[in-house]
Amino acid sequence: MKINAKDVASGVFLILLAAVGLWLNADHALGTARRMGPGYMPMLVFWIQLGLGALVLVLGLFNGPDPLERWTGIDAGMLVVSVAVGTVVWQIAPMFGEFFTGTYNAIGLGMLAGFLVICVSKGWRLLGFICAAMCIFGLLLEKGGLMLALTATIIISAMAEPQHRRQPLGVLGLLVFLLALCWWIFIKQLDIRVAVWPMQY
Amino acid sequence: MDLIGNLAHGFAVAFSLQNLLFALIGALIGTAIGVLPGIGPVATISLLLPITFGQPATTAIIMLAGIYYGAQYGGSTTAILLNLPGEISSVVTTLEGYKMARNGRAGAALATSALGSFFAGTVATVVVAASGPLLTSIALSFGPADYFSLMLLGLIISAVLAQGSVLKSVAMVVLGVALGLVGTDVQTGQQRFTFGIPELSDGIGFVSVAMGMFGIAEIILNLERPEAREVLKTEVGSLFLTKEEWKRATPSVLRGTLVGSVLGILPGGGASLASFGAYMMERKISKGRHLFGQGAIEGVAGPEAANNAAAQTSFIPLLTLGIPANAVMALMVGALIIQGIQPGPRMVEAQPDLFWGLIASMWIGNVMLLVINLPMIGMWVKLLQVPYKFLYPSILVFCCIGVYSLNNNVFDVYMTVLFAIFGYMCNKLKMEPAPLLIGFVLGPMMEEHLRRAMLLSRGDVMVFLQRPISASMLAIGAIALLAMMLPNLRKGKEAALSG
Question: Which residues cross the membrane (chain A) (predicted)?
Answer without folding.
Answer: 7-24, 44-62, 74-93, 99-119, 126-156, 168-187
